[in-house]
Amino acid sequence: MQHPIRVMLVDDHAVVRAGYRVLLSQADHLEVAVEAESGEQACQFYVEHQPDVVVMDLSLPGIGGLAAIRRIRARDEGARILVFSIHDELAYVSRALEAGAKGYISKASAPDILLEAVLKIAEGGIYVEPELARRLEGQSAPGEPQAESFGNLSAREFDVFCLLAQGHTTRQVADELCMGYKTAANYATAIRGKLGVSTTAEMARLAYQNGLLKS
């Protein structure tokens, strides 16, 4: 009998994880071995349980999904991580793949896409949702927004930047990312310095130009 593919689900919403678990259980060669609700837990549980595939959300409390991907990959270069996120903007996709993710699909994708992606990555392949892959291939075309502007931001700075650009206050950013107000304010100051902007409006404009905000 073939050994089942052991999956770790990483999402901070228990109801969402329950839905993933039901979906993955439909394939008799997949099993959800462990669940985590934060980036820190994901790193800890990866070491303890050694799952075959990690299904990782990006919007997590604590260190966040991007940083968790980097930490897991630093411990195990062979880690197979699939990002399953509400974000379908190319800057997120690029950052996740650069961090070491082996695949990226959006939560708006059809259920069978998740199963297909997990199986492909478990086999050692790379899987990017077809529509996202098409957009990635065309992002260097004339007139397409580029994500290089954010290359100097750390994973957590990128998370903070996106929330500020969406109109969140510093207090709301702190609450959303489970950090202190002063920490969030320090991140905001560092981000403005790295990006050469001075106002939230300028952040929003930069985010829009890079496809991080919808028109």
From TrEMBL:
<feature type="domain" description="HTH luxR-type">
    <location>
        <begin position="146"/>
        <end position="211"/>
    </location>
</feature>
<keyword id="KW-0597">Phosphoprotein</keyword>
<dbReference type="GO" id="GO:0000160">
    <property type="term" value="P:phosphorelay signal transduction system"/>
</dbReference>
<dbReference type="InterPro" id="IPR016032">
    <property type="entry name" value="Sig_transdc_resp-reg_C-effctor"/>
</dbReference>
<feature type="domain" description="Response regulatory">
    <location>
        <begin position="6"/>
        <end position="122"/>
    </location>
</feature>
<dbReference type="InterPro" id="IPR000792">
    <property type="entry name" value="Tscrpt_reg_LuxR_C"/>
</dbReference>
<protein>
    <submittedName>
        <fullName>DNA-binding response regulator</fullName>
    </submittedName>
</protein>
<dbReference type="InterPro" id="IPR058245">
    <property type="entry name" value="NreC/VraR/RcsB-like_REC"/>
</dbReference>
<dbReference type="InterPro" id="IPR011006">
    <property type="entry name" value="CheY-like_superfamily"/>
</dbReference>
<dbReference type="Pfam" id="PF00196">
    <property type="entry name" value="GerE"/>
</dbReference>
<dbReference type="GO" id="GO:0003677">
    <property type="term" value="F:DNA binding"/>
</dbReference>
<dbReference type="GO" id="GO:0006355">
    <property type="term" value="P:regulation of DNA-templated transcription"/>
</dbReference>
<feature type="modified residue" description="4-aspartylphosphate">
    <location>
        <position position="57"/>
    </location>
</feature>
<dbReference type="Pfam" id="PF00072">
    <property type="entry name" value="Response_reg"/>
</dbReference>
<keyword id="KW-0238">DNA-binding</keyword>
<dbReference type="InterPro" id="IPR039420">
    <property type="entry name" value="WalR-like"/>
</dbReference>
<dbReference type="InterPro" id="IPR001789">
    <property type="entry name" value="Sig_transdc_resp-reg_receiver"/>
</dbReference>
